[in-house]
Amino acid sequence: MMQFLARWATAFLLGFGLSGAALAQQAPNVAAAADLRLALTEVAAAFEHDTGEQVTLTFGSSGNFFRQLQQGAPFQLFLSADEGYVLDLAKAGKTMDDGTLYAIGRLALVAPNDSPLRVDGSLAGLRAALRGGQISRFAIANPEHAPYGRAAEEALQHTGLWRPLSDKLVLGENVSQALQFATAGGAQGGIVAYSLVLDPAFAARAKYALLPASWHRPLRQRMVLMKNAGPVARRFYAYVQQPAARRIFVRYGFALPGEAR
Q: Structural domain of residue 187, as residue ranges?
């Protein structure tokens, strides 16, 4: 029924001379890294409240979005968890410019409340659980295309735990799916985006610890307008850089460019 109504509404508007491009302009498609699921959803709601305008958010792996945008996917704005993807798109002439750095991400160790894994920021509990044979499944995002997966791999390499865990890893398509695996997929824990564990509902089912940023390359997160960006997408791009949006990012554990944490 809902699909029928959506098709009817589109046909109705088209009948009054609004093209498909105009409809897309009213609610531009935004590709956003999965670690932004909580923060950017709140920012988009604030944007709608303040301006009366809407955006359509799609969350996923930055690497997958990069490949889709190379092939002409109709997103007007891309918020990546790895600035390298944005800069490569800019070099390929797909974007309006080089974009702007909007946040620095962090990693967190997580485990279900009933897990034998003791959660701590030094990973001493993970090391002990491995030695005790208590870890059979451990979740991270896929390092091949998810920036938070690459950072998790680097953190585990830094602590000497990558090889002991390599045959126990469960890889999420993106960091949001890795969090699901780590807390509700039969795993004893995982390493995910800090921004996703600051949901008040998270504490009811799992525990977490922030990991040192020095254990991995900085998660420099950059956003950019694509060549097809319309006025609403441009206004949302500007809104994300304003104090109200920046306060939301800080509340979800992100560091802001130019500000010490």
A: 107-210
